[in-house]
Amino acid sequence: MVRSRLPADMHETAMGDEIDDDEARAIRAKRIIEAVAAIPRGRVASYGAIAARAGYPGRARLIGRVLGDAPNRLDLPWHRVLRADGKIGIPPGTAGYREQCRRLKAEGVVVKDGRVPMSAFGLDHDLDRAIWGFPI
DNA sequence: GGCGTGACGGAGC
DNA sequence: AGCTCCGCCACGC
Question: Which residue's CA lies closest to nucleotide B6 at its C1' atom?
């Protein structure tokens, strides 16, 4: 059993439990998948927000990696994850890009030129409404 | 063990 | 809005 040397997984081993790199990857994937699964239908979140919510702040790129490896499960709303500016992260012209557009529009999310207005569909929208009583 | 790459993000211009 | 850098870091050569 090899202790994980992945820098960001050190907190996993801080309690003294021995884990190898594969297990560390599995834990990361699980947390990230759960965070993605928690995005409500018709709403979107940024890679960075999911990273933070999964316990990996500042590591937005990790989310793209995990989602890229994850199977295209129908029950995993991977399409609700976008760049911070609302743009689709998958390179335009690819099948994945078109699929993401399709799945977003299918649940009422507005996609214009490969971009979603985060102010209207991002989770902050709900937060602002909860705090202020209306979207700001 | 370097090195380039990327489904990122923020700052600066 | 767009375009550099720069920090980030797992992966595959």
Answer: A61
The domain that holds A67 is classified in CATH as 1.10.10.10
Tell me whether residue A95 is in a domain: no
**Residue of A57, A46, A63, A45 whose CA lies nearest to A8:** A57
Cα distances (Å, whole numbers) of residue A52 to A36, A56, A71, A103, A128: 11, 5, 22, 24, 19
Å separating the CA of residue A61 from the C1' of nucleotide B8: 5
Q: Is A67 near strand B, with its CB below 7 A from some atom of it?
A: yes
Residues spanned by the domain of A37: 7-86+100-132
A83 touches strand B (CB under 7 A): yes
- pLDDT tens across A97-129, in order? 999 999 999 999 999 999 999 999 999 877 777
| Chain B nucleotides covered by protein, CB below 7 Å | 6-10
